[in-house]
């Protein structure tokens, strides 16, 4: 039996209510879901709670999966929806303001490094995760999925249900916000527009935003390097 057949069989069993099949199905995605959640919560325990809430929604929604995309793409579409709802909730906003950010996430720091180097790495991770949580939500998800998790443009577009060009625009603008928050840009990006105002608003563009006829540059830069180091 091929891997595709194995996956289809697991999906079918999970859709029929077999919990063990669901656990096997999502096992390879748990770390990524947990890390994704950390971009929306101030601590690892909160990220675990939010990830569990999202995976419960995935389990309850399994029968809605119609093989119109890869299972992992569909899973992250559901997960992202739960995270966005959380970010918009009053509880999410209050908790993100009040609680300190934990440095730990899905991976431990290298044990062989000297103590002072470990401290620098820990401080850098704190700084990057704290800054990432302040990036406007619509840009933050693209940064996590593309820069941190390494998902290709077309999959990020499918998860976010937008054209690839919109993903590139969100990455460009998100990196501009993150650069400023990390102290790498001299000017502050304009604050995000209120919900419902549309992402095409000029207020969402970082200072170096290209003209309307220019494709945003989304090649790796120092900002995405920060994310990759903090997520490794």
Description:
There is one protein chain. The protein has 232 residues and is mainly α. It has two domains: 1-106, RNA polymerase sigma factor, region 2, helix turn helix motif (Rna Polymerase Sigma Factor, Chain: A), CATH 1.10.1740; 113-232, Winged helix-like DNA-binding domain superfamily/Winged helix DNA-binding domain (Arc Repressor Mutant, subunit A, Orthogonal Bundle), CATH 1.10.10. It contains eleven helices and no strands. The chain has helices spanning 3-15, 19-26, 30-38, 44-60, 71-88, 90-98, 115-132, 137-148, 153-160, 164-181, 222-231. Helix 3 (30-38) crosses helix 4 (44-60) and helix 4 (44-60) crosses helix 5 (71-88). The longest helix is centred in the middle third of the chain and has 18 residues, at 71-88. It is globular. 33% of the residues are buried.
